[in-house]
Write a structure and sequence with these properties.
heterodimer; A: about 120 residues; alpha/beta; Rossmann fold; four-stranded parallel beta sheet; globular; B: about 150 residues; mainly alpha; 2 domains; 7 helices
Amino acid sequence: MTKPFGLVLVSHIEELASGLCTLVKQGASNTSVTYSGGTDEGEVGSSFDKIMKAVNDNEADYIYAFYDLGSAKMTLELVSEMSEKTIEIIDAAFVEGAYTAGALIESDNTKETIDEQLGTLIIK
Amino acid sequence: MARGVSAVIETIKDDSFDNPSEVMKKAAMAMISKVGGASGPLYGSAFLEMSKVIDNEPVPVVVEEGLKAIKKRGQAELKDKTMVDMWAPVVEALKSDTLTEDFIKETMEATKPLKAKKGRASYLNERSIGHLDPGAVSSGYLFEALLKEAEKID
């Protein structure tokens, strides 16, 4: 994998995260996309350990992270503060934001272009 | 919450600690790892920040650091119907040495007429009015426990 950026998807629901990953991969098959969904017990919620694992498992050191609801964001923030990787948390619509970022990373756009396009999707 | 607090009890019961900050740090990590909901990162952040000052500062200062961490993490202000509506009044009460169980109960009740502006309840808009805020209530339990421990010392 030679892409400079990776994607991490964080949802309260395992299937939502894995489903979105499948969708994003359609437009970003060579981009590293990892995800975390639900709690350690597989219930609805977010897990610090699972998010940290998704970050560590990602092949990139610079991560664009997308989340569904507020508490996933807060847990993601804690992970970003404790991780050695750079994690940019994007307050965009979960599906559209992640798909857009994936497609842009896949087609080797500059960070400037990626950020500009994501900027139009910020809704939270 | 129950899952997180059980994890806190589990993680601190066997260890011998040299100072309160170590207990706070352990409690923070247990809350962060085990709660799964918004209160995990919120309490976790509060405990982490409080652990930095608890060994050297008086209780009101320590709790105020917790409040700051919660506001930063959750981006909430007073009257947003969140745990800030418990922590902020408690900090003031601690500073003036007027914290009582009744004060905590009244502060919980005071969240009832508020409309939620943060957290999952905010999606309910007007329908969030008339319910206690769960974050303020769980924080109230925390401060009731603090009061009980303080009474033992007195």
